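Students often ask why inverse folding is considered easier than folding. One informal answer: many sequences map to the same fold, so there is more than one right answer. In these notes we will look at a single instance of the problem. The structure comes first.
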Protein backbone atom coordinates (compact mmCIF):
# COMPACT_ATOMS: atom_id res chain seq x y z
CA UNK A 1 0.00 0.00 0.00
CA UNK A 2 1.49 3.38 -0.95
CA UNK A 3 2.35 6.11 1.53
CA UNK A 4 -0.31 8.35 -0.05
CA UNK A 5 -2.96 5.66 0.41
CA UNK A 6 -1.97 5.08 4.04
CA UNK A 7 -2.08 8.82 4.75
CA UNK A 8 -5.51 9.04 3.12
CA UNK A 9 -6.75 6.07 5.15
CA UNK A 10 -5.44 7.56 8.39
CA UNK A 11 -7.03 10.92 7.62
CA UNK A 12 -10.32 9.21 6.80
CA UNK A 13 -10.08 7.20 10.02
CA UNK A 14 -9.45 10.34 12.04
CA UNK A 15 -12.38 12.12 10.41
CA UNK A 16 -14.64 9.16 11.05
CA UNK A 17 -13.53 9.01 14.69
CA UNK A 18 -14.27 12.72 15.12
CA UNK A 19 -17.60 12.27 13.35
CA UNK A 20 -18.44 9.31 15.57
CA UNK A 21 -17.66 11.37 18.67
CA UNK A 22 -19.93 14.18 17.51
CA UNK A 23 -22.89 11.95 16.69
CA UNK A 24 -25.44 11.78 19.43
CA UNK A 25 -25.64 8.78 21.73
CA UNK A 26 -28.95 7.75 20.15
CA UNK A 27 -27.44 7.09 16.72
CA UNK A 28 -25.37 3.93 16.62
CA UNK A 29 -22.51 3.79 14.18
CA UNK A 30 -21.13 0.37 13.35
CA UNK A 31 -17.74 -0.05 11.79
CA UNK A 32 -16.24 -2.94 9.96
CA UNK A 33 -12.65 -3.64 9.05
CA UNK A 34 -11.41 -5.48 6.01
CA UNK A 35 -8.06 -6.67 4.66
CA UNK A 36 -8.55 -6.11 0.95
CA UNK A 37 -5.06 -7.44 0.10
CA UNK A 38 -5.97 -10.76 1.70
CA UNK A 39 -9.20 -10.88 -0.28
CA UNK A 40 -7.54 -10.07 -3.61
CA UNK A 41 -4.76 -12.58 -3.00
CA UNK A 42 -7.29 -15.40 -2.66
CA UNK A 43 -9.26 -14.68 -5.81
CA UNK A 44 -8.74 -17.18 -8.63
CA UNK A 45 -8.51 -14.33 -11.17
CA UNK A 46 -5.26 -13.23 -9.59
CA UNK A 47 -3.33 -16.24 -10.91
CA UNK A 48 -4.39 -15.47 -14.47
CA UNK A 49 -3.46 -11.81 -14.03
CA UNK A 50 -0.08 -12.71 -12.56
CA UNK A 51 0.60 -15.09 -15.48
CA UNK A 52 -0.24 -12.38 -18.03
CA UNK A 53 1.95 -9.86 -16.22
CA UNK A 54 4.83 -12.34 -15.96
CA UNK A 55 4.60 -13.07 -19.68
CA UNK A 56 4.69 -9.37 -20.58
CA UNK A 57 7.51 -8.67 -18.13
CA UNK A 58 9.52 -11.56 -19.59
CA UNK A 59 9.05 -10.13 -23.05
CA UNK A 60 10.33 -6.74 -21.90
CA UNK A 61 13.30 -8.20 -20.01
CA UNK A 62 14.21 -10.38 -23.00
CA UNK A 63 14.30 -7.26 -25.18
CA UNK A 64 16.42 -5.47 -22.58
CA UNK A 65 18.85 -8.41 -22.46
CA UNK A 66 19.16 -8.33 -26.26
CA UNK A 67 19.79 -4.58 -26.17
CA UNK A 68 22.43 -5.06 -23.48
CA UNK A 69 24.12 -7.85 -25.46
CA UNK A 70 24.25 -5.66 -28.56
CA UNK A 71 25.65 -2.77 -26.54
CA UNK A 72 28.35 -4.90 -24.91
CA UNK A 73 29.39 -6.38 -28.27
CA UNK A 74 29.63 -2.92 -29.83
CA UNK A 75 31.52 -1.55 -26.81
CA UNK A 76 33.96 -4.45 -26.90
CA UNK A 77 34.53 -3.92 -30.62
CA UNK A 78 35.08 -0.21 -30.04
CA UNK A 79 37.57 -0.85 -27.23
CA UNK A 80 39.56 -3.20 -29.47
CA UNK A 81 39.65 -0.76 -32.39
CA UNK A 82 39.83 2.47 -30.37
CA UNK A 83 43.55 3.10 -30.92
CA UNK A 84 43.19 2.72 -34.70
CA UNK A 85 40.23 5.09 -35.10
CA UNK A 86 40.47 8.71 -36.17
CA UNK A 87 39.27 11.29 -33.64
CA UNK A 88 36.11 11.85 -35.71
CA UNK A 89 35.38 8.11 -35.98
CA UNK A 90 36.08 7.72 -32.26
CA UNK A 91 33.66 10.54 -31.37
CA UNK A 92 31.02 9.11 -33.72
CA UNK A 93 31.28 5.65 -32.16
CA UNK A 94 31.16 7.07 -28.60
CA UNK A 95 28.02 9.03 -29.55
CA UNK A 96 26.47 5.84 -30.93
CA UNK A 97 27.29 3.99 -27.69
CA UNK A 98 25.75 6.80 -25.60
CA UNK A 99 22.69 6.63 -27.83
CA UNK A 100 22.41 2.91 -27.20
CA UNK A 101 22.65 3.52 -23.43
CA UNK A 102 19.93 6.16 -23.61
CA UNK A 103 17.73 3.92 -25.74
CA UNK A 104 18.15 1.11 -23.19
CA UNK A 105 17.27 3.39 -20.26
CA UNK A 106 14.29 4.86 -22.11
CA UNK A 107 12.94 1.42 -23.04
CA UNK A 108 13.38 0.17 -19.46
CA UNK A 109 11.59 3.20 -18.02
CA UNK A 110 8.81 3.13 -20.64
CA UNK A 111 8.11 -0.55 -20.12
CA UNK A 112 9.11 -1.41 -16.54
CA UNK A 113 9.10 1.96 -14.74
CA UNK A 114 6.53 2.97 -12.15
CA UNK A 115 4.43 4.64 -14.83
CA UNK A 116 5.48 2.21 -17.55
CA UNK A 117 3.49 -0.08 -19.79
CA UNK A 118 3.67 -3.00 -17.34
CA UNK A 119 2.29 -0.90 -14.48
CA UNK A 120 -0.50 0.46 -16.70
CA UNK A 121 -1.37 -3.05 -17.88
CA UNK A 122 -1.44 -4.29 -14.28
CA UNK A 123 -3.78 -1.46 -13.31
CA UNK A 124 -6.01 -2.27 -16.28
CA UNK A 125 -6.15 -5.96 -15.38
CA UNK A 126 -6.70 -5.30 -11.68
CA UNK A 127 -9.51 -2.75 -12.08
CA UNK A 128 -12.29 -5.34 -12.53
CA UNK A 129 -10.93 -7.26 -9.53
CA UNK A 130 -10.89 -4.10 -7.40
CA UNK A 131 -14.43 -3.28 -8.52
CA UNK A 132 -15.58 -6.82 -7.69
CA UNK A 133 -14.01 -6.66 -4.22
CA UNK A 134 -15.39 -3.17 -3.56
CA UNK A 135 -18.86 -4.33 -4.59
CA UNK A 136 -18.61 -7.38 -2.31
CA UNK A 137 -17.47 -5.22 0.60
CA UNK A 138 -20.42 -2.89 0.05
CA UNK A 139 -22.86 -5.84 -0.09
CA UNK A 140 -21.52 -7.41 3.09
CA UNK A 141 -21.47 -4.00 4.83
CA UNK A 142 -25.12 -3.46 3.94
CA UNK A 143 -26.04 -6.98 5.07
CA UNK A 144 -24.22 -6.39 8.36
CA UNK A 145 -25.76 -2.89 8.67
CA UNK A 146 -22.35 -1.24 8.92
CA UNK A 147 -21.97 2.52 8.65
CA UNK A 148 -18.39 2.35 7.40
CA UNK A 149 -15.75 -0.20 6.44
CA UNK A 150 -12.10 0.69 6.90
CA UNK A 151 -8.91 -0.94 5.66
CA UNK A 152 -7.26 -3.05 8.39
CA UNK A 153 -3.79 -1.54 7.87
CA UNK A 154 -4.97 1.87 9.06
CA UNK A 155 -5.13 0.73 12.69
CA UNK A 156 -2.64 -0.37 15.30
CA UNK A 157 -5.24 -2.57 16.91
CA UNK A 158 -8.63 -3.82 15.77
CA UNK A 159 -11.02 -6.08 17.63
CA UNK A 160 -11.40 -9.20 15.53
CA UNK A 161 -15.19 -8.91 15.89
CA UNK A 162 -15.06 -5.96 13.50
CA UNK A 163 -13.19 -7.85 10.78
CA UNK A 164 -15.46 -8.76 7.86
CA UNK A 165 -12.66 -10.00 5.56
CA UNK A 166 -13.78 -13.62 5.69
CA UNK A 167 -17.43 -12.68 5.21
CA UNK A 168 -16.45 -10.83 2.03
CA UNK A 169 -14.36 -13.82 0.88
CA UNK A 170 -17.29 -16.13 1.56
CA UNK A 171 -19.60 -13.84 -0.39
CA UNK A 172 -17.20 -13.85 -3.35
CA UNK A 173 -16.72 -17.63 -3.23
CA UNK A 174 -20.45 -18.18 -3.30
CA UNK A 175 -20.48 -16.23 -6.55
CA UNK A 176 -23.04 -13.65 -5.48
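Output (designed amino acids):
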Amino acid sequence: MSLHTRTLIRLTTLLLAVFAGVVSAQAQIKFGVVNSDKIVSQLPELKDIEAKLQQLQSSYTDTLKAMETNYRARLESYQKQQTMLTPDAKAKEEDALRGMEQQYAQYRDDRLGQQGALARYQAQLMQPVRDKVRSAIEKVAKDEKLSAVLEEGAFLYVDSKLDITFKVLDYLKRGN
